[in-house]
Prior knowledge:
The protein is mainly alpha-helical. Helix content is 54%, strand content 0%. The longest helix is centred in the N-terminal third of the chain and has 38 residues, at 2-39. It is rod-shaped and about 90 Å long. The N and C termini lie far apart (85 Å). The mean pLDDT is 77.
Amino acid sequence: MVKETIDHLLKQHRIAGEMYIAQQKELQAVAEIKTRNVHFQVPRQKKSQPKVDLAANLGEEGRTEERVNL
Length: 70
């Protein structure tokens, strides 16, 4: 009876160890994926684009009062 109890406890301990190792491997894989995603993220562009004054670039002969926003 004592031997059976010891065998049962050893089996439970082994199973718990295997589950722990599997969990750690899974956490490591998730961490690697998150790290990879951080390295390959494309920076987002700003929503507000700078306003361009096209009339200022035309010179004196083509200058108008109209301003164009892009």
